[in-house]
Amino acid sequence: MGLVATLRAVERATRPYDPEFAEAMARRWAQLPGTAKTPGQIIGRHGVGCEGTHGVFPKCNLKCTPCYHSRDANQVRVDGPHTREQVAAQMGLLRRLRGPRAHTQLIGGEVSLLPPDDHAATLQIMREHGREPMSFTHGDFDYAYLQQLALGPDGKPRFGRLSFAAHFDKFMYGRRGIERPPNEKALNPYRRRFTAMFTRLKREHGVRYFLAHNMTVTPGNLDEIADVIRDNRDTGFGMFSFQPAAFLGDERRWKEEYRAATPDAVWAQIERGAGTRLDHHVFHNGDVRCNRTAYGFYTGDRWFPFLDGDDPRDLAVRDAFFRHLGKVNFTGTPPVLLAARLIRIIARHPATLAIALGWLARTAGRVGLTRLLVNRFRIRPVTFVMHLFMDAETVAPAWELTKRGETSQDPKLRETQERLAACQYSMAHPHNGTLVPACVQHSVLDPAENAQLRTQLPLVDTRTTKNPNNPANPANCPASQPASQPASRPVPKEKK
Ligand code: SF4
């Protein structure tokens, strides 16, 4: 390649943003209802929202109360080719309708029931469609599985980075070694065992990771949230996400007065765990009645927000970020390329450098020099999230009205319609070219979809070994786990 061609290629590669991504965000912004067009809204300014898969591997081998899957879910066989095919079709539609970049959860029942090669191939398909995948798991699998997922047949890493969201709470029954957790604290060794597998993977094979901790909240574990955060804040989770339980999915598994754990009560407990007030209005992800988010970092045992919502100078930083950096894709961009893109932005808008330096100085001042020195300037970014699914009884009629292009006069249904319109968690239906909010998927569409899958992918009775550590699993999980997943093992100690 000649010099001119090389310079042109460098110029193209370091362009601050992809025009197709910018167009996709503009479309998304235009579709948002007025209630969601807030100054802190991320959708349409720095992303198009999250995505998730559906109808790919609905079965799980733990039992949760509540469970968002329909009653047929556990009667569907986990099937690698079906998963790859469906995910490819769903990602194709997402790529077409939502543009070239997004964060997408590989979610269904339990992802580790997929053989590791199928799991890896599916992640690869998602990446090929511009999706940054995150596998959704209960975390009850072994290092051998993780290693087989991360490494190719040649023993070399097939991914530079893996992302997992791990669901841990005491309402999940059948975890090996702790069949019925008496409380959240009892699960801490299992949480640590999970994150330790990724530390080991990174140490042995250089595969980086991002881990989110997910927890369903009911009145029964509300007052344990703070300790979960305090006990696990330095174990490697980069996000703590809490989902107040909703009445959707399998109604046989609805056990409590879930709505007694109000959003404010849950957020107050998250704040207690973080040890500080968490301002969830600096940034919004979709409708704030669905999602509350606080971005920040730990230095030692204290959490600090990236931006202080009470400081107008920090809010100006947010606005400048959206203006100049919002269209830049940070996730998955190699650091050198990202630096080159940022330099070009600074060259075009020199004021951004002064804004950034001012913010850096203020943030360091808030943390304090002594604390920074004691912790050797080490910070751990940790995000707190609360995601509030809606109940099936309101989602179904609200969705019906939305499909008819009508707006309800009933305040509750109207709110539901607004939230659905601003949804930041979409699922794709390639057969009819539509996207639906996850609430609609679980409340309205899952039952028929899983009933159909039950016929298409019937369970094959391949029971070979009964797991002595987990007598409940065969009941939940009539088919055995895949061969790659040993039937039993001691828990929770992991050989380092
Ligand atoms: S899935 Fe439901 S609760 Fe979540 S953002 Fe979408 S509409 Fe809101």
List key phrases describing it:
TIM Barrel; rSAM_sf; 2 domains; 496 residues; 40% helix; Aldolase_TIM; eleven-stranded mixed sheet; Radical SAM domain-containing protein
How would you describe this protein?
The protein is an alpha/beta fold and 496 residues long. It has helices at 3-13, 19-31, 80-98, 116-128, 143-150, 188-205, 225-232, 263-274, 312-325, 335-348, 351-367, 369-374, 392-403, 411-421, 438-456, 473-476, and strands spanning 50-52, 63-64, 102-106, 131-137, 161-167, 172-173, 208-217, 239-244, 291-299, 302-305, 380-387, 425-429, 434-437. It folds into two domains: 33-300 and 379-476, TIM Barrel, CATH 3.20.20; 311-377, no CATH class. Mean pLDDT is 89; it is low at 461-496. The strands form two sheets. The protein has an eleven-stranded mixed β-sheet with strand order 10-9-11-8-7-5-4-3-1-12-13. Strands 2-6 form a two-stranded antiparallel ribbon. The chain contains 16 helices and 13 strands. The site of iron/sulfur cluster has 15 residues, from α14 and α15.
